[in-house]
C-alpha cells in the first residue's frame, strides 16, 4: 500500500484511504467490495470510481497510460459508459470501450428460470445456448461415429451406453472456465462488474438492485442495452410448473428420458436432434412450419432426416394442458394437445416436456419508458438506426434486443466492438448485418447465407432467379455406407447479377 501512496503522491494526486480493520462495519464493506470487484485481497484501489485492482494492477495501469486517462476524466458522470447485460454483445462493447481508456461498468444479473436454473456471466450463448448446445450435438455425433467406426475397422464387444450426468458435468465445467475468463478479462481492463439488475430512474441515471435487495445509483454519459432474450412460455395450465426450456436443459442433473419438444425453431430441432442422437425417445410438436424464416425446402429436408433417426413429428397441434402424473427425476407428464385445424384432441405421456417456441426480449423491467426509449410493444425489441442508436440519443442497443438484427453471437460481438470504437475511438465503421451466415446444428447440419428461396422470390420475382442444386455424398459417409441421397446444397442466383443475361 505504501508504494501506491507514493505513486499517487508523485503524480500530485490526493487519495482517500479507508482502513477496513479500523472501522466498525469493515466486514460488511469488504463484502460489498468483493461483490462489486470480485477481488478479495487488499488494497482495492479505485480511481475516478473505476476499480483498477491491487498494487500490481495499479502500476500496470500507470505504465500503460490508463491511470492518467482515468485521472483526467470529466467527473460529471460516474461512468462514460454503462452496459446493462453481460452477454456477448455487452461484454464486447464494454471491453473495447475500456481498452480505449473509458470508465466502464457492466450490470449483469440472471433471474432464475421457473425451474430455478440460473448461471453466471456471459449471457445466453455461453451458458444456455450455442456453447452447450454444440457440445451436446457433438456428443450425439460421437454416437453416430461409433456406429460408423465398425466399417472403418474398429472392433469392440462391450455394450456402449451414454451417461447424461458425465456429459453435463463436463460441459458445465467448461462453461464455468469461460465465465471465469470473462470476469478476469473485465478485471484486467478495469471494467466494473456489478451483479445487479439495472433500471433507469431518470435521464443518465440508473438504479442497480442486487440479489439482497440493496439499491445503488449510478450515472453515465452513455448506455448500451444488451439484455438479450429469455424463452417464452405457452401460458397454459402446468407449463411453468412442469415444463423446462433451454434455460434448464443443459444443466439438467438427470437424463430427461422420453421427451416432447414443443416448437419448430432452430433451438427446438437442435435439442430434439441431439436428444434423439443420445438414444432417447423424442417427439416434436409443431404448430405450423419447421424453421420459420428459413428456406422451407431445406427445413423439410432437415425434418425428414430427423424422422429417419426416429424422431416423431406431431404436425398442426399445440399443447393446451400439462399434468404431472408422477414426480421424479424424471417424472411422468401427460400432455393434452389440440389440432390447429379443428377440434381434434390428443394426449401423450412423456418424462420431460421441453418448450422451444420462441424468445421474449428482456426490456420490460429496466425503466426504458421513464426516459422515453421507444420499444416495439409486440416484440419488446428496441428500434435502432444504422449505428445501434435508440430513440434516446445516449442509449444504444446491441444483440438480440435490437430490432431487425440477426440474433447471432458473432454479429452481436462485432456490433458491440464497432459501437465502442465509434463512441470513444473516433472510428466510423458500422456493423454490416447483410448476409450473415448461420448454422442450425440439427443431426443433418444446415448452413445458410443470404435469402431463403421464398424471400428471394419475394424480392426479385421467380422469373428473375436461377436456382442450382445438387445432392452429394460426403467422403466420410461412403465407407460407412450412409445414405447417398441425404446431403443437399443449393445456390439461389439473381439473373440481374449475371453479365451473360445482361447482353
From TrEMBL:
Database matches in CDD domains: GRX_GRXh_1_2_like (cd03419)
GO cellular component terms, semicolon-separated: cytosol; mitochondrion
Necessary cofactors: FAD
Domain called FAD/NAD(P)-binding: residue spans: 79-416
SUPFAM superfamilies from the UniProt entry: FAD/NAD(P)-binding domain, Thioredoxin-like
EC number(s) from the headed UniProt entry: 1.8.1.9
UniProt domain Glutaredoxin: residue ranges: 3-52
Pfam family, one: Pyr_redox_dim
Family under the similarity heading: Belongs to the class-I pyridine nucleotide-disulfide oxidoreductase family.
Name of this chain's protein: thioredoxin-disulfide reductase (NADPH)
Species, as recorded: Balaenoptera musculus (Blue whale)
Taxonomic placement: Eukaryota, Metazoa, Chordata, Craniata, Vertebrata
Amino acid at each position: 500500500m505504501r508504494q501506491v501512496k507514493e505513486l499517487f503522491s508523485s503524480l500530485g494526486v490526493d487519495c482517500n484511504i479507508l482502513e477496513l480493520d479500523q472501522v466498525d462495519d469493515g466486514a460488511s464493506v469488504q463484502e460489498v467490495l468483493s461483490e462489486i470487484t470480485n477481488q478479495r485481497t487488499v488494497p482495492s484501489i479505485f480511481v475516478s470510481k473505476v476499480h483498477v485492482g491491487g498494487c500490481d494492477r495499479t502500476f500496470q495501469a500507470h505504465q500503460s497510460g490508463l491511470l492518467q486517462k482515468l485521472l483526467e476524466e470529466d467527473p460529471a458522470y460516474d461512468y462514460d459508459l454503462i452496459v446493462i447485460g453481460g452477454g456477448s454483445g455487452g461484454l464486447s462493447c464494454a471491453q473495447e470501450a475500456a481498452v480505449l481508456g473509458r470508465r466502464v461498468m457492466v450490470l449483469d444479473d440472471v433471474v432464475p428460470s421457473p425451474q430455478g436454473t440460473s448461471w453466471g456471466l456471459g449471457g445466453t450463448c455461453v451458458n444456455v445456448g450455442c456453447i452447450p448446445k454444440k457440445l451436446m450435438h457433438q456428443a450425439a455425433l460421437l454416437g453416430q461415429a461409433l456406429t460408423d467406426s465398425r466399417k472403418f475397422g474398429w472392433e469392440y464387444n462391450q455394450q456402449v451406453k451414454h451417461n447424461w450426468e458425465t456429459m453435463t458435468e463436463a460441459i458445465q465445467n467448461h462453461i464455468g472456465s469461460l465465465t471465469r475468463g470473462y470476469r478476469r478479462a473485465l478485471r484486467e481492463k478495469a471494467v466494473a462488474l456489478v451483479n445487479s439488475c439495472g433500471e433507469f430512474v431518470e435521464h443518465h441515471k440508473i438504479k442497480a438492485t442486487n440479489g439482497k435487495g440493496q439499491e445503488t445509483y449510478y450515472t453515465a454519459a452513455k448506455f448500451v442495452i444488451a439484455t438479450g432474450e429469455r424463452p417464452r412460455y405457452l401460458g397454459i395450465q402446468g407449463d411453468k410448473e412442469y415444463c423446462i426450456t433451454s434455460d434448464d436443459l443443459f444443466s439438467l442433473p438427470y437424463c430427461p428420458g422420453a421427451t416432447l419438444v414443443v416448437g419448430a425453431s432452430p433451438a427446438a430441432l437442435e435439442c430434439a436432434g441431439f436428444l434423439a442422437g443420445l438414444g432417447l425417445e423424442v417427439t416434436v410438436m409443431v404448430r405450423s412450419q419447421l424453421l420459420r424464416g428459413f428456406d422451407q425446402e431445406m427445413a423439410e429436408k432437415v425434418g425428414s432426416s430427423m424422422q429417419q433417426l426416429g424422431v416423431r413429428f406431431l404436425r398442426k397441434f399445440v399443447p393446451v394442458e400439462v399434468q404431472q402424473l408422477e414426480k421424479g427425476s424424471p417424472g411422468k407428464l401427460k400432455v393434452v394437445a389440440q389440432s390447429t385445424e379443428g377440434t381434434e384432441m390428443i394426449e401423450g405421456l412423456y418424462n420431460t416436456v421441453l418448450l422451444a417456441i420462441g424468445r421474449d426480449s428482456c426490456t420490460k423491467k429496466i425503466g426504458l419508458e421513464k426516459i422515453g426509449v421507444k420499444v416495439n410493444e409486440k416484440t419488446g425489441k428496441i428500434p435502432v438506426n444504422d449505428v445501434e442508436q435508440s430513440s434516446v440519443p445516449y442509449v444504444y442497443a446491441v444483440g438480440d434486443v435490437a430490432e431487425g438484427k440477426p440474433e447471432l453471437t458473432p454479429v452481436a460481438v462485432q456490433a458491440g466492438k464497432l459501437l465502442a470504437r465509434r463512441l470513444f475511438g473516433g472510428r466510423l465503421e458500422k456493423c454490416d448485418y447483410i448476409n450473415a451466415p448461420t448454422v442450425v446444428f440439427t443431426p443433418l447440419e444446415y448452413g445458410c447465407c443470404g435469402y431463403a428461396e421464398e424471400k428471394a422470390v419475394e424480392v426479385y420475382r421467380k422469373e428473375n432467379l436461377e436456382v442450382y442444386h445438387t445432392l452429394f455424398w460426403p467422403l466420410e459417409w461412403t465407407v460407412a455406407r450412409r445414405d447417398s441421397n441425404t446431403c443437399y446444397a443449393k445456390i439461389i442466383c439473381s439473373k440481374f447479377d449475371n453479365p451473360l443475361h445482361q447482353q
